[in-house]
Write a structure and sequence with these properties.
The chain contains 15 helices and 9 strands. It is α/β, with parallel strands linked by helices. Strands 1, 2, 3, 4, 5, 6, 7, 8 and 9 form a 9-stranded mixed beta sheet that branches. The longest helix is centred in the C-terminal third of the chain and has 19 residues.
């Protein structure tokens, strides 16, 4: 059966599993129905507001505990963490209320010693004072959080999970969002240095399926049209920041651009016969319309509209599941 609500694409069996799990009243880690349900959250800087709205809707529908594992890269990892820790409403509110400020994003810092995106402000101010986050709670979380990072030395994607303590989890969250020049230098965890996870894998649906997920709900931060559109600009040249990244590490600038990062996963999302989808159920939620939000957008009204669009998209897709929780 195909899901046909605006923004929903794929197999409605994912919705049926969510409904059955809601009916049981069991929380994360207590499902014994023989299935493994993964939530995969897309990133993309401030585009994460769309996914934040979707996670808010999932939380309001009582589905925060329905997932066995949560995957995310970059902003998607932060949004997924909010759901795992029971902060679903904050996953939406943080973007417009706390992140649309020059303390967090300031393009005037490009070319200086300070990154355009201040992860210090996010991790040490917003997530301490405005939206307190207890990183050590991830150590014992019944739902497994899997954070994508990219190894700085060879730009290959890797998964961080089962980390031993709160400080290491906090370092992992910094790593999954760090891009030299844009959001800070690589982060050392263990024997390697890591950067933004979405550079190597912006939407780890294939990894979730290969890892044993029988059902996957993927939250996109771009509309279908935006995913299919060519990159902006008419001269074919990469933007200045991307060319600067390529000088630091050949290939990094191309991989860090939105269209380049998502092109490789489109066939998996759109082709029901894709080999990675064999005997598995995949449902994708994409914003039903665009609010004009991009990675570095700080227009508060647009960002707030993006969270509302995400919320509406998820609520429409959930249908009777959401009504039961009302």
């Amino acid at each position: 059966m195909r899901a046909t609500t605006p923004g929903a694409h794929g197999d409605a069996e994912v919705l049926r599993l969510l409904e059955r799990r809601l009916d049981t009243g069991r929380g994360a880690g207590r499902h014994d129905d023989g299935h493994r349900l993964a939530l995969v959250v897309g990133g993309g800087g401030m585009r994460g507001a769309y996914a934040g709205g979707m996670v808010h809707a999932l939380s309001d529908a009582g589905l925060a505990g329905a997932f066995d594992e949560v995957w995310g890269s970059s902003a998607g990892a932060f949004v997924g963490t909010a759901l795992v820790l029971g902060h679903g409403a904050d996953a939406a509110r943080i973007f417009a209320d706390d992140m649309t400020c020059r303390e967090f994003i300031d393009p005037r810092r490009f070319g200086t010693r300070r990154p355009m995106v201040s992860l210090d402000h996010l991790l040490d101010h917003i997530l301490v004072h405005s939206r307190p986050t207890e990183w050590s709670s991830l150590v014992t979380s019944p739902a497994e959080l899997r954070v994508l990072v990219t190894r700085a030395s060879d730009l290959t994607p890797h998964v961080l999970s089962g980390l031993p303590d709160g400080p290491t989890w906090k370092a992992a969250m910094r790593a999954t969002a760090s891009i030299p020049l844009l959001a800070g230098p690589p982060v050392r965890i263990g024997d390697d240095e890591w950067i933004d996870g979405s550079v190597g894998d912006p939407l780890p649906v294939a990894r979730a399926l290969r890892g044993g997920a029988t059902h996957v709900l993927a939250l996109m931060t771009r509309t279908v049209d935006e995913l299919a559109a060519p990159p902006p600009g008419t001269d074919g040249r990469a933007p200045l920041w991307a060319r600067s990244l390529d000088r630091l590490a050949p290939g990094l600038g191309r991989m860090a651009q939105d269209t380049a990062r998502h092109g490789e996963c489109l066939s998996l999302l759109t082709d029901a016969a894709h080999p990675d989808r064999e005997r598995a159920h995949l449902l994708t939620l994409a914003p039903h319309t665009s609010a004009g939000v991009r990675g570095l957008t700080t227009d508060r009204a647009r960002v707030r509209r993006a969270t509302a669009i995400g919320y509406e998209t998820a609520l429409d897709a959930l249908g009777t599941v959401a009504l039961r929780a009302a």
